[in-house]
Design a protein that fits this description.
The complex is a heterodimer of chains A (533) and B (481). Chain A contains 15 helices and no strands. Chain A is mainly alpha-helical. In chain A, helix 8 crosses helix 13. By secondary structure, chain B is an alpha+beta fold. Chain B folds into four domains: 73 residues, no CATH class; 64 residues, no CATH class; 143 residues, Cupredoxins -  blue copper proteins (Immunoglobulin-like); 137 residues, Cytochrome Bc1 Complex, Chain D, domain 2, CATH 1.10.760.10. Chain B is built from 15 helices and twelve strands. In chain B, strand 8 and strand 9 form a beta hairpin. In chain B, helix 11 packs across helix 14. In chain B, 37% of the residues are buried. Classes of the chains: A mainly alpha (533), B alpha+beta (481). At the A-B interface, helix 3, helix 9, helix 10, helix 11 and helix 12 of A face helix 1, helix 5, helix 7, helix 8 and strand 9 of B.
């Protein structure tokens, strides 16, 4: 893949009428339609949300540090677990991926910008308002949402605090933002590829995001439907989820997880793309099994629609349903396994170096696989009767989401920071950040497997004495992981302000159109499409 | 940093063991190894426990043989992981830690345990292979060792292999899982039916056909939860009245809820069923050994989700029959109490107990509640004004729709209802002097009318339509029973 680009003129603003640099001041950010600006805003927003949700996790871990109630009351504890989940999913992980997509997809496919730049601006600017509204519920009378991020009815309808209406509105806005983001990404990928960039030449990050965007469009309306039905039940006397009026609380769970299961793949598929870009770079050899990677991603996306009830093995669905969902869930292990094998084979007989992005990517493969193993265990329906709603599940999904989504995002940021800022980040600090995160993360979540198997239910503010020691370990790990993220903030700011100048091809083995551009990238890129051979 | 974290951990542990949790030092810890071996051992004392890993190794050595079974290997591996993540932590601590699922005391719980260990071992083997290759590459194929990249990137054969082999493993795993699942779903031919109803935040147990029914509440005192007193060994896992079941009989559970979704879970039976308002779920168990088995609610059900434990007291069929008879007698006696003439002091004493057991979770022991969700009773209009007595009785008996205030008609006896209402009208400076008798409550339940004891007519309080049926809002017919 080579690219011929004409970017020299971009560095001199005012040379052409339409080739200008960014506007000055605050209005640059409010009015911008530039994919790089919007990508940057998405990433900063997501980082702020990450720290907010993280602070809530610190409250949770502080309360669970030892048995007994010490810091918060049980009601507020429930608000913390709920908001932590919602903020991390909708505020931190999803916007971070959209931010990366905004920055990188046009650069990877040789497009001048996103296909729908004004909508792009709007889909970002909805987010801060939705987030502020969501967080503000904590200060309302009766407190914020306290029914878990899965907000099962009737706890979230008949028995919910008054602020639930604001929560529903916030979810609607976040959903609209996601759908618009997804439409934009699909339109960009299908229409704005440079000549010669066929579908099967696209980098895997572009492929995984294309599939993710379809998932988003398919399931965000389902979530909107669920919360709208909640709204009707709360305010307009309907009984969608109330058996007394002919409804069914389990219907809520079916609808929620029909959204919820694809949602967890929305949070992992782009990571697959990121890791598939980074591992070949630092192994200095091409990705093993590109085609099978694409097909595996598509299979995972398809299967994600027919496994939702594995979150509901204990609600009393009939035996046949139980069996179907167990078999379908087990099947997901096949394409996921293919991906892991491909990554390992990519590393095999390469010439590896271990810069920070590579360290995070390797940790991703190892820890995500461990999360996959516990997922496989959870898929066994009879065993799930013992695992369900225990800390084993908490350990499982934090193993797939923290190293899965968060580590991949860190890897992506370190990998492309030189391209974005024009400076290399501080490698020593980057590695410190990695090792602290890696140890902290494992110290937090590995013991949770044990307390879960030993019988500790999730979402409880206080626990029996036999769980005390592992909980204390988890809390110490949690504090370590949490504070380490401030170091990440420092590294990024330091890199923006200066540092060793980055070359156009910032990494020795890097492939792809983005590396044909100077570092930092000019404000406008690929105004004439590159030729891809 | 790691060392600092561990040092901190140990320091805090030492400090805590010193003051907050002395009972644990005296406990007898249970060690579990291999396939179901259980050994009791008294705890190692502190000085000895500083040789953490040494004593840990010695303990395992004594059961070396169980390592050879597949389950033994799995368990050993779990212990290895546990000790790896806990290295340098005293053996006393390790001894306390359960790191694996219980095998339980039923055939189903054992077959679930076997499934769990099988899939776990499969995962470990695959993990060792995959990570083995990976770490070999990381060690050997690094640029700093002068490795040259080999740019191969495809091989149809291996790709087909690593698609089909996992598929076959999964098929092999699905077969025993299916068998166990079919067994779990076979609730036919049960000898005893127990209806379990989840409430915020307690369980109701009804022995169908026996006219025995009671509520089971958390017994752990708030002083323990709020760290005023030291915690009992069964902290948070103790109830006022456990579910008593016979061993050796097939027991069917009919699980439902009165308000939000709960989940009834006893790990030793491997029974976990969601309790869903308006529907009835079935589950069953056949307990093999008498004993006390503990569990907890496993579905987030609001503020006190963490404080509604389950305790099952499994007894031999003879002991069970004896208990059931006694229980029936006691229920008959309780019914007689309704007609007794109660004094203020008696009602207040009983009311205080009932209030603290049932009402204080929301309205608080001091009656101040947690506004606006849980209103204060202290000084509230309803609890002090004379013309509100009827409304007061109504809200306690019938609950308030759409709020957490439940209908207590079925949960509490007439005596308890009268006592608690009397208590609420006279405690915390609400000194109204109002005395509500069990007879008045009974009358209210029957006619929807409240007659003040010393006034002859009810014309002061206008006739209001009869309150709705006092059953909790469960539609049992909908569940297709």
């Amino acid at each position: 893949m080579t690219a011929v680009t004409d970017t020299s003129s971009n560095e001199k603003p005012n040379e052409h009428h339409d080739h200008h640099g960014p506007a000055k001041g605050l209005m640059r950010w409010v009015l911008t339609t530039n994919h790089k600006d919007i990508g940057t805003m998405y990433l900063w927003f997501s980082f702020i949300m990450f720290l907010t949700g993280g602070a809530m996790a610190m409250v949770i871990r502080a309360e669970l540090f030892q048995p007994g109630m010490q810091i918060v009351d049980p009601g507020f504890f429930n608000q913390m677990t709920t908001m932590h989940g919602l903020i991390m999913v909708f505020g931190a992980v999803m916007p971070a991926f959209v931010g990366l997509a905004n920055w990188m997809i046009p650069l990877m496919i040789g497009a001048p910008d996103m296909a729908l730049p004004r909508m792009n601006n709007w889909s970002f600017w909805i987010l801060p308002f939705a987030a502020v509204m969501l967080v503000s519920t904590l200060f309302m009378e009766g407190g914020g949402p306290n029914f878990g991020w899965t907000f099962y009815a009737p706890l979230s309808t008949t028995y919910a605090p008054p602020s639930t209406t604001f929560f529903i509105f916030a979810i609607h806005m976040l959903g609209i933002s996601s759908i618009m983001g997804a439409i934009n990404i699909i339109a960009t990928i299908l229409n704005l590829r440079a000549p010669g960039m066929t579908m099967m030449k696209m980098p895997l990050f572009v492929w995984t995001w294309l599939i993710t965007a379809y998932l988003l469009i398919a399931v965000m309306p389902v979530l909107a439907g669920a919360v709208t039905m909640m709204l009707m039940d709360i305010h307009f006397g309907t009984s969608f989820f109330n058996a007394g009026g002919g409804g069914d609380p389990v219907l809520f769970q079916h609808i929620f997880w029909f959204f919820g299961h694809p949602e967890v793949y929305i949070m992992i598929l782009p990571s697959f793309g990121i890791v598939s870009a980074i591992l070949p770079t630092f192994a200095r050899k091409p990705l093993f099994g590109y085609t099978s990677m694409v097909y595996a991603t598509a299979s995972i996306a398809f299967l994600s629609f027919i496994v939702w009830a594995h979150h509901m093995f204990t609600v009393g669905i009939p035996l046949v349903g139980e069996l179907f969902f167990m078999y379908a869930t087990l099947l997901i292990a096949v394409p996921t396994g293919v991906k892991v094998f491909n990554w390992v084979t990519t590393m095999f007989r390469g010439a590896m170096t271990f810069e920070t992005p590579m360290l995070f990517s390797i940790a991703f493969v190892v820890l995500f696989t461990i999360g996959g193993f516990s997922g496989l265990m959870l898929a066994i329906a009879p065993a799930d009767f013992q695992y369900h709603d225990t800390y084993f599940v908490v350990a499982h999904f934090h193993y797939v989401l923290v190293p899965g989504a968060i580590f991949a995002i860190f890897a992506a940021v370190y990998y492309w920071l030189p391209k974005w800022t024009g400076h290399m980040y501080d490698e020593t600090l980057g590695k410190t950040h990695f090792w602290m995160s890696f140890i902290g993360m494992n110290l937090t979540f590995f013991p949770m497997h044990f307390i879960g198997l030993a019988g500790m239910p999730r979402r409880i503010p206080d626990y029996a004495l036999q769980f005390a020691d592992f909980n204390m370990m988890a809390s110490i790990g949690g504090f370590m992981f949490g504070t380490t993220q401030l170091l990440f903030l420092f590294i990024v700011i330091k890199c923006i302000r200066g540092g060793e100048k980055a070359k156009a091809e910032s990494w020795e083995g890097a492939e792809g159109l983005e590396w044909s551009l100077p570092s930092p990238t000019p404000y406008h890129t690929f105004t004439t499409p590159p030729d891809v051979k | 940093m790691m060392q600092h974290a561990l040092a901190l951990f140990l320091l805090i542990k030492a400090a805590m063991s010193g003051k907050d949790r002395p009972p644990r030092m005296l406990q007898v810890a249970r060690f579990r190894y291999g396939s179901g071996c259980r050994t009791n051992r008294s705890l190692l004392s502190w000085p000895e426990s500083s040789r953490g890993l040494v004593s840990f190794a010695r303990l395992n050595f004594s059961k070396r043989l169980s390592f050879m079974t597949p389950k033994g290997i799995g368990k050993t591996f779990l212990w290895f992981l546990a000790s790896l993540s806990a290295f340098l932590i005293p053996a006393r601590v390790l001894a306390d830690w359960e790191v694996n699922m219980t095998e339980g005391v039923t055939a189903v719980s054992r077959s679930i345990y076997d499934l769990h260990m099988t899939i776990f071992i499969i995962c470990v083997v695959i993990g060792v292979l995959v990570f083995g290759v990976m770490f070999y590459s990381i060690l050997m194929h690094r640029k700093s060792r002068g490795a040259k990249p080999h740019p191969f990137h495809e091989s149809t054969l291996v790709e087909i292999l690593w698609t089909t082999i996992p598929f076959l493993i999964l098929v092999g795993m699905a077969i025993p899982a299916t068998k166990t699942l079919i067994d779990i779903y076979d609730t036919s031919e049960a000898e005893i039916d127990i209806k379990i109803t989840g409430y915020q935040w307690k369980w109701q147990y009804e022995y169908l056909g026996e006219e025995v029914s009671f509520f089971s509440n958390l017994q752990t005192a708030p002083e323990q939860i709020y760290n005023v007193r030291s915690k009992d060994p069964n902290y948070l896992l103790e109830v006022d009245e456990p579910l008593v079941l016979p061993t050796g009989k097939k027991i069917r559970f009919l699980v439902t809820a009165a308000d939000v979704i709960h989940s009834w879970w006893v790990p030793a039976f491997a029974v976990k069923r969601d309790a869903i308002p308006g529907f009835i779920n079935e589950a069953w168990t056949k307990i093999e050994r008498p004993g006390i088995y503990r569990g907890q609610c496993a579905e987030l059900c609001g503020k006190d989700h963490g404080f509604m434990p389950i305790v099952v007291d499994a007894r031999t069929p003879e002991d069970y029959a004896k208990w059931l008879d006694e229980k029936k007698e006691a229920a008959a006696k309780e019914r007689e109490l309704t007609t007794k003439d109660w004094t203020m002091a008696e009602l207040m004493e009983r009311g205080k107990k009932t209030y603290e057991r049932v009402c204080a979770a929301c309205h608080q022991v001091n009656g101040e509640g947690m506004p606006p969700i849980f209103p204060a009773l202290k000084g509230s209009k309803m609890a002090i004004e004379k013309d509100q007595i009827k409304a007061h009785i109504d809200i306690v008996v019938n609950g308030k729709k759409g709020t957490a205030m439940q209908a207590f008609a079925a949960q509490l006896s007439e005596v308890d209802l009268a006592a608690v209402i009397t208590y609420e009208r006279n405690a915390w400076g609400n000194n109204t002097g109002d005395l509500i008798t069990p007879k008045q409550i009974l009358e209210y339940k029957k006619t929807g009318e409240y007659k003040a004891a010393d006034t002859e007519s009810s014309d002061k309080s206008p006739v209001v339509s009869k309150p709705t049926v006092n059953e909790p809002a469960i539609n049992t017919h909908q569940a297709g029973l």
